[in-house]
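ok, trying the design again with the full structure, not the truncated one.
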């Protein structure tokens, strides 16, 4: 995977993806079954000065859910809809559909390894928070490379988070091609690991039904 899934999602979101259920695609959430497995951290859980920030927690929660959604090929789950916007889910679903239809299937071995670089709150609106991270871009299980391994390449990305008194959710993800040091980022593997099915196609991807 030569370009982080975040970059592909960001391109779809900023292009203004229409919130519709495409033909020849499954839609939910009636039979959705997206669960985040246990995470076995290989070098300790994420730590640092920002980890207790609500916006950072929302980023990590949303990422773990989307990673599970990628592995299930299912973006219709209501938990996903509560963690990120429907535009992000649509971008993720379309990205996975494109990869499957072009013979480039992949699975996430765990949540995306990332180090938080900064957290900035909008001075005029305290509910608007930007979380800048360094995240792994070589984090995927692909045919011929099915053993999880430590990430070695990172790119900077920015998550925009909407923080309310009782809820926080990711509103936008902007990827970049700016390399960064990912060597100190915590990384962990899902337990159990996803069941690898290299024969699935874009028709197997479940789209979000509507805006939530």
């Amino acid at each position: 995977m030569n370009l982080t899934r975040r970059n592909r999602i960001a391109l779809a979101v900023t292009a203004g993806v229409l919130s519709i259920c495409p033909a020849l695609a499954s839609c939910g959430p009636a039979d959705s079954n997206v669960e985040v497995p246990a995470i076995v951290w290989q070098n300790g859980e994420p730590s640092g000065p920002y980890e207790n920030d609500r916006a950072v927690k929302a980023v990590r929660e949303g990422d773990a859910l989307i990673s599970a959604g990628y592995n299930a090929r299912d973006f219709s789950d209501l938990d996903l809809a509560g963690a990120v916007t429907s535009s992000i889910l649509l971008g993720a679903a379309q990205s996975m559909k494109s990869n499957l239809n072009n013979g480039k299937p992949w699975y996430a071995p765990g949540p995306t390894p990332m180090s938080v670089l900064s957290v900035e709150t909008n001075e005029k609106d305290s509910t608007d928070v930007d979380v800048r991270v360094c995240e792994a871009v070589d984090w995927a299980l692909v045919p011929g490379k099915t053993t999880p391994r430590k990430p070695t390449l990172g790119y900077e990305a920015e998550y925009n988070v909407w923080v309310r008194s009782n809820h926080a959710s990711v509103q936008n993800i902007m990827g970049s091609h700016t390399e960064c040091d990912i060597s100190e980022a915590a990384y962990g593997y899902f337990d159990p690991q996803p069941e690898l099915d290299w024969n699935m196609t874009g028709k197997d991807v479940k789209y979000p039904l509507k805006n939530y």
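Keeping the full-length input from now on. The radius of gyration is 16 Å.
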